[in-house]
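Morning. Coffee machine broken again, so started the prediction first thing and wrote up yesterday's gels while waiting. Chain of 174 residues, entered below exactly as on the submission form.
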Amino acid sequence: MRVIVLALVVSLLGSVATADTRIVYAEDGQGDRIAIATVDLTDAGPYTINMNGDVFTDHFLSMRPFKCLEGPGKHWCHVPYPYEINRDISAELTDLEYDLMFVWKDATDYGINMWNGVYYQLSEDDGILTGELLEMDMDLLSAPPPKGELRPLRAQDLHESDPASHWLPRIVIE
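Came back before lunch.
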């Protein structure tokens, strides 16, 4: 009887999706990196993301709290996606892109302009995810999308940017 139970437990444990923890780095133009989060990926596609609170500072900007990375001339403030999201990358990387949105501001500005949105479009190469910076107007997300619409941003909402004009033009997840 013990052998049967042990075999059943081993079989069930083998069928459970395993998690692969990856570090999310924001990378500047010189290749210097800041570990901004960890992502726990499962074999099936669902993931969890945990922002690294040690590298962000608290800011109260435009009447709301933000967690920001303080750079030499710009601050990168994380914008948690406020609407429904599956957090599943089995078919595409969009959910993770939505979790890694930021808005930038000059280090000396008191407020924040939501039209300075940063969207990292992710791609996968040999198991490493990289995100190239695109610009967007975050005001597009000021109102909830219609119920059930999990992808409110369209290709025409995202704009190419000059990487040299930004502090953190790239995301690397490895």
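Residues 23 and 38 are 5 Å apart (CA to CA). Going to sketch it on the whiteboard this afternoon.
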